[in-house]
Structures are given as C-alpha cells and as structure tokens.
Specification:
With 132 residues, this protein is an alpha/beta fold. The protein is 24% helix and 27% strand.
Amino acid sequence: MMKFSKRMRKGHRTARNILVLGTGLGNLEDLLETFDTVFVVNGSLPRIQKRNIVYRETFDNINLITDIDLIIVDLDQEKFIPELIQIWRKTNPTIIVQGPELISIEYQKILKADHYAIREVAKGYYIWKNKI
C-alpha cells in the first residue's frame, strides 16, 4: 500500500466509501485496496476491473449516492465541484483537492459557503473539512 493510501486510511479511519473525480491523484488502484467502495466519475479512465469500483461517466444521478465519507478531486476536475454540493450537504465528507495551487476563488467560495475550510496542507493536495 502506498504512502498516500495509508495516510488516507489513517486520517479517515471510519471512511468506507469514497468518490473520486479523475484519477484519485494517480493512486486509484491503491485506493481500491484501502476502501470498501470507490465511485469514480471520469469518462476517460481506463477501466480497472475490481469488485469495489463503480464507474460513472457523467454526473447524472450522482446525487443518489448517499454514503460518501471522502471525496478526492484532481485539479483538472475542479470545474465539477459545484456538481458535488448535494453530496457534501448530505454526508459532510472530507474533501481532498490536488495541489500545489489552490482551486480558483469561485470554487473556494462554494466550499466556504457550506462551512468547509482547509484543515491540512500536504504534499500535493489540500484537505478541506467541514467546520461544523
């Protein structure tokens, strides 16, 4: 298991199901070994065949997913952050966004409006958690 996956498991011991936009910061296969279910939204990914992965090519019916503990967003997928509002309002997951740059001000405002703040800056990503 890679260092990234170990850190994700250690920091989120109760996390079982995660939502990944993109490639999971390049660690998708390790995330599959770490978490029970990995929902992936990305139309261009090579298909990995594992029992615990669920692919979605679009955000159609993405709000039907109700049990998400962690969301991982690749930096090139930041434009889809507004699509996730209904999910994080239901379950208050931790949100990890790839760095080293911050996401644009527009998306920061969306997260901050729902009481999210950067709680940790790690090498290559930012961890946003709900303050409530």
